[in-house]
Amino acid sequence: MNLKKLCLITLASLFALSVGAQERSVNVSLRGGYNAVHEGFSAVTLSGNYGFDDGWALCGGVQYSTIGRTAVELRPAYLYDVEWATLSARGLVHYAGQNGYNNLAAGVGVGLERGGVFCTLGYYYRTILGGGGRIDEPVNFFYELGVELLPNVEKWALQLIFTNSELCDLERQYQPSWIVRTGWQASENLGLTFDVNYKAAGMFNMSTDFYQLFIQAGLCYRW
Amino acid sequence: MLQVVRKIVALGAVVALVAGCDKYDIKGMFVPTSDLIARRFEQSMTANEGKTLAVVEASEDYVFYVSTDPHVDATNNNIRTFVSDLRNDADASFGIVLGDLTDRPGKFPFYLEATAYDASKHANNTPIFNVLGNHDIFFDGWGDYLKLIGPSVYWFEVSFSGGKDLFLVLDSATGTLGTKQTKWLKEFLATNRTKYRHCIISKHTNLFNTDNTQSTSGNMPFEESFALMELFARHNVTLVLQGHDHYREDLTNNGVRYTVVGTIKDEATEPEYLKVAVSPTGVAYEWVEM
């Protein structure tokens, strides 16, 4: 069994175990956009969130893109409420395959959420397998900095996010994306999301240029 | 008090973003301040007129020199040494400088002065080919580069009895090859690669990120790296020469050798350049400490 199949089956098993218990949400989203190298592309992402009663939470997803990339990611977290914020310890396990190369990453980080501002900072390590060899990257940052722009987060959501580690898209530390994320909770169980995602090339220590722009629409079922 | 500190920090950040300094184009790291890759590619192709930039005559076995990141600023000592070594080596056919030729706007003439042929010091007028680096286009430096140095995307040939080698120079100064250059590169390799014995590619930005010495150095996007690695392997590229990261790296993947050459800037603690010996079977290296 190859690594890709193993990862997919592991993730599917986790979802299977959680469904019907205390699963919080399942999301499916479609994206379409333009990339400097691959030009027009689209992708589908299936993801899920599960919140336990004791502070643990699990988030994961699988993504297929028409550029020939498949990615699987799992993010466990432990959330802890203090008087002034919600703190969290976060983990990250990531696999992606593209152009005959498989890359595996694992990381740990910490998160903070307070008053509509949320951030996660962590380190990850990645190794690339393929082409008859292995390439190890040094420890890299992953981060997400976001702000909730609307007060009524129960019904509507509008977020501005700056991150190099969107679910299933784990980039190098100098390769962030800017995301405008909107959400609408249509009913108790159903929600819709719509994202605009821009990724520049050459940020931080280079001259910036266009790399990628896509929109992503999602359907979320909560229970 | 805390609010005053916050305002000062915020104001400082805004000033830094808008003004930058005359060395690091901080504003350009977030919003474009120079021509984007699409325009640089178009202007380079216009300058090339669709033809090879040069044909270098050599024997079947030949030598060329490679250095990178001289970052010429107040001094240009190491690039002078590199040029002197190159032009006094009768076996050397040409030299390549892999980008970041200068460290500040207005320094191209000082770089050209260091690389100019001087009959009193140089035995041969060996040609030198340049690659565009990110520092070269800081503060809208592309116009000066095109005018004084030349196009950023081009190719030249090394011709020898019974064959020729292809040297492709790519523009990765803004961290991506961009749509037009990528499309051109795919078509060029598909159409022309088989006409040549070896294919050697020179670009500034590293595909990999195996070293954090420069912290947020910046390389290619992850997906682009994989796409290019697959493309280079499919077309049997012999060697990819890269700079930018100020350290030495040498790895082979899918039959393609990827070499990052360290910096020769005057302030470098261990400046070095590379002598590449090309033969029918491939390439061999000699690293030269300065």
| CATH fold field value of the largest domain in chain B | Purple Acid Phosphatase, chain A, domain 2
- The low-confidence runs of chain A, each spanning 5 or more residues with pLDDT under 50, are 3-22
User: What is the fourth-level CATH superfamily of the largest domain in chain B?
Assistant: Metallo-dependent phosphatases
Question: Given the C-alpha coordinates, what overall shape of chain B results?
Answer: globular
Pick out the low-confidence regions of chain B: none
Quaternary: heterodimer
Strand content of chain A: over 45%
> What share of the residues of chain A lie within helices?
under 10%
In short:
Helices cover 7% and strands 69% of the residues of chain A. Chain A is mainly beta. With 290 residues, chain B is of the alpha/beta class.
Task: List descriptors.
heterodimer, A: 223 residues, mainly beta, Porin, 12-stranded antiparallel β-barrel, two-stranded antiparallel ribbon, B: 290 residues, alpha/beta, 7-stranded mixed sheet, 5-stranded mixed sheet, globular
